[in-house]
Amino acid sequence: MSSEIEIDGEGPSRQVLAEVPGRALRFLSAAGKNRQIRALLRERGYTDEDHREGWDLLHRASGFGTGEPDEVEDAEVGKAIAELDAWDEPHFRFIRAALLRRHPAQERFVFDNLTAQAGPAAVVSVKTLLDRLDALEKSTKRKATRKEDHAALETLAKRGITKEERTRLRQLVDIASGGGAAAEEGEEGEQNGGAEPERAVIDSQEHLEALRALHAWYREWSETARAFIKRRDFLVRLGLAHRKMKVKVKPSPAAPPAPDVL
User: Fold this and answer.
1) 20, 172, 214, 236: most buried by Cβ count inside 10 Å?
2) Contact partners, residue 147, CB within 8 Å, separation at least 6
3) Model-level pTM greater than 0.85?
4) pLDDT at position 35, please?
């Protein structure tokens, strides 16, 4: 892994770029799972293609650690996210253990800066794993290690990570990423308690360009949302506002009783 690269003075700062995957993840999750938010964005030109583009850019820029917003609304999307969330932690450990002793070079490639995540962030982590397993199978950049790569995939297939299982997981990722008809949710179910996203380490020119592309997408649609979405709870879900804290008013001390009048 190369050391962090320098960023020129033009464009967003290192801190802004490092935080954009977590912010984009929250925005995409809310836009994909809440019908009313999606409808408001559609009025301003936010199409299914724009939504998929955001997920694609996030996948390119991720694998470096993200947090997760704590909300699940849409039945189909929520079910897919929940299944991926439940799958990634034990199976990442299982797959890593299977590769580590027998195929250490492939283990390093597959799990480079990749860990299991929670909530919607699991969609990113599982997609990254699947992309890397696909690279072991057929990437033109790995011709020199094709025999060893295929041996690693055979080991995983014997342990249940077959092509059919990878296809099933890919379908779940597509459902979770694409968004769908979202169920209504009352404000009582909304919490703003998701973990803060870890800041990405910008360690290559390719990664830098991916973050810049994601930042450009996020800036366009977050500014659109800020301009035309007026409901504060929707902005909170999109990660564009903070929930107002209720201030407890201390009761005034009781006035002393009036003296008796003689």
Assistant:
1) 20
2) none
3) no
4) 87
